[in-house]
Every structure is written in structure tokens, then in C-alpha cells.
Amino acid sequence: MRIDVLTLFPRMFEMLNDTGIFQRAINSGLVNINIHNIRDYTHDKHHVVDDYPYGGGAGMLLKPEPIFEAVEDIIMKVNPQESVPIILLTPQGIPFSQSAARRLSKHEHLVFICGHYEGVDERVRQYLVSEEISIGDYVLTGGELAAMVVIDSISRLIPGVLGSEYSPENDSHSFGLLEYPQYTRPAEYRGWSVPEVLLSGNHAQIAKWRRRQAIIRTLERRPELIDKSSLNREEQELIEQTQKAETDKDTRVE
Ligand code: ADE
Fold first, then answer.
1. Which CATH number belongs to the domain containing residue 215 in this structure?
2. Is residue 106 one of the residues assigned to a domain?
3. Closest atom of ligand 1 relative to the 139 alpha carbon
4. What are the DSSP E strand ranges found in 96-180?
5. Number of structural domains, the chain?
6. 147 lines ligand 1 (CB under 6 A)
7. Whose CA is nearest to atom 4 of ligand 1?
8. How many angstroms separate the CA atoms of 23 and 16, rounded?
9. Is the residue at 207 inside a domain?
10. Are residues 201 and 102 in the same domain?
11. Domain boundary at 136, 155, 174, which?
């Protein structure tokens, strides 16, 4: 996968080159990441990238010309025929999710634009960008950290990046549930024991226990994620029992 990032702060992306999984993705050649300074696409002496908003108001906006020119330059150089997602990171975007990560990980080329200041000229959104992504309902000083979050979650889904010993299928959110609890050695620590079933070697029982725990955990922490139609009868009953136990607890008079 080729990833191009347009930013006013290229140095923020240096950490991607020398950290963990990402370094592996780059070194293995599975991900090729190119950082472009938006300022390099200006033509004036002072390399101005922003300007005041028409109609007045606080703050500055990123001008359209350098952003259009940078994206067009990249697309022309790589493959003008290909349809490439042009993604703007902005708090106004669609909330990012594991399913969006999965969809984007199937593309061969992605372009990210990191917004800054008070925003970007609307024509960039209207006529250049193909999708806008937000990483949550809070405002960062720029799209750089958001781009890194999105790039990280996409690249780990590219086959080979995580190595054969790890598969992302059991990750939280991968099948609509949070991940089940996990334990490693020692089997007992400070009197706290690992659940018996995990030591039993009975793989069918372990799988059942894990699925049950994933459902209970999701119900406790993120009930809105549960899609009952994807659960079997027994699992649906488990949910009803857990919900009933919660209601009884809430209504009990102490
Ligand atoms: N830029 C500023 N805040 C952001 C957010 N929450 N998500 C994506 N990009 C942003």
C-alpha cells in the first residue's frame, strides 16, 4: 500500500519510521509512506498556506491552491487512472471505525490531508476530498495525530504486517464485540487465579467461555454495539439474563 500524507508538520510523522509494528510495515515494503509539506506547493516568496475567512470571523483557513496542487501532483505521478480515496481528517468527519479501517486497508493507495488552523477552504471538501474522517468527538490542534491513528489501524490489517503469529480477527470490534479477557502465566498471582477453563485444554469449552465473556464485557461497557441478530439463541438468553440481573440490582431496596 502506498500512503501519501499532506501536512504542515512533516516532522510529526518521523516517529512512524522508528516505532514497532509500523517500522516493520515500512521495512518489509508492505507499506510505503510519503510525507509532503503543503508549504512546498505554494508559489509565493513567503510560502503562505493560510488566509482570513471571507465574511470575517476568528482564525485562519488553509488556502485551496497548495492542497489541490499537491494532491494532483501525487495522483499524476503515481497512477492517474486509479480512483484513490482522498481523506480529510477533521472533527466534522464520519466517526472512524474498525469497519472503515477494514475497507480502507483493501486499497492500494490512500491520500490523507491534515487540516489545521480553523479549517480548510470549503472547495477542498467539495471538489477534492472523497471522504472526511473524525477520530472522535473532540478537537485536536490538527489532523496529524488523527492521521497517524487511522494509518496505524489500517496498516496492521494489511496481510503480513503483523506477522503470521498474530491475526487481527479476534481484536475488539472485529466481530461486533469487545475482546474477551486474556491471561498469561503465572496461573496464580497474589491469590488471583486464572479461570479454570483456560487451563483445561478443552478448546471447545474455551471458545465458548471466551465468546460468553466477550458478550458480557460488551454488554457492560458498550451495549450499543450488540447486534442481537448475530447471536445464537443461547447467547440471546445470556444477554436477557444479564440485563435482568442488572435491572433487579438497580431496583432492589437496600
Ligand atoms: N482534527 C482536529 N480534530 C480532529 C478529530 N477529532 N478527528 C480528526 N481530525 C481532527
1. 1.10.1270.20
2. yes
3. 3
4. 109-114, 131-134
5. 2
6. no
7. 91
8. 7
9. yes
10. no
11. 155
